[in-house]
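(Fold this chain)
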Amino acid sequence: MTVTKTPPMHDHNRPTTKGAGVRKRWLFFLLILLMMSGCGIGGKRTYIVKQYLLEYPPPAAEGLGRINELLMVERFSVARAFNTPAMIYKENAFQYDVDPYHRWRVNPGDMLSDFLARDLGRAGLFRAVYGPSDVVDTRYRLEGWIEEFAGRGGKDGPKAVLSLQATFVDLAKKETPERVIFQKSYQLMEPLIEKSPEGLTRAMSLAMERLSKQVISDVYSALKNR
C-alpha cells in the first residue's frame, strides 16, 4: 500500500518573516524622520530667531585739538513702546507690528549707548571716555532718552527712524539747572533700500553713524567753549 504525503498548506494571508522585517525597518526609519522634522507625537516645530546689530565705522574727527576732560556715557532710557529687542515696524496710523523671527541683538538703549561711548572714545578728542558698564566718577556725563527706534512706512517709501533726546551735564555744579550744559533733540531718517530685517539694520546703521557724528560735534563744541 502506497501512502501519499499531502504537502503542507500555506497560509497566504500570513506575512512571511522576511516581509515583516522589511516593514519594521521602514517603520523605524519613518519614526526617525518624524522625530528629526519635529512632527513626532507631542513634538513642536522649532524656528530660528535671527539677531541683528548695527555696523558702521566710528566717525573721524580731524583737525580738532584735544580736550583734557573725562566723559561718561550713561545707558540711554527708552520709550516703553520701543523698549524691547524686537524689530518694530509702523505700517499705518496707530498700527505697530513686531517681527517674531528677527530681533536686535540687544535692547536699543544698550546698543546706542555702547556705540556712542565707542565713537566718542575713538574720536581721540578727549582724555578718556567711559561707557555704561564702567564704574568711574567723571565730571561730564552724556545722558539720553530714545523716543523712537523703528521702521516706518509712508507715501515716500519705507524708512528707518531714529529719534532721541540727549542731555550733556556737568556734575561739578551744585544746582540741577546749572548742571545742564545742553539738551538737544535728534531725529534721523534713512530710506530702506529693501523692506527686510537686513534693510532695516543697514538703514538704521547709517542713521546711527550720522547721529554719532552730530553728538560728537555738539559735545566737543560745548566743552571747547566753557
Observations:
- Residues 197-224 form the longest helix (28 residues).
- Strands lie at 50-52, 67-73, 77-78, 86-92, 95-104, 126-130, 140-152, 159-170, 180-191.
- The longest strand covers residues 140-152.
- The chain is about 30% helix and 30% strand.
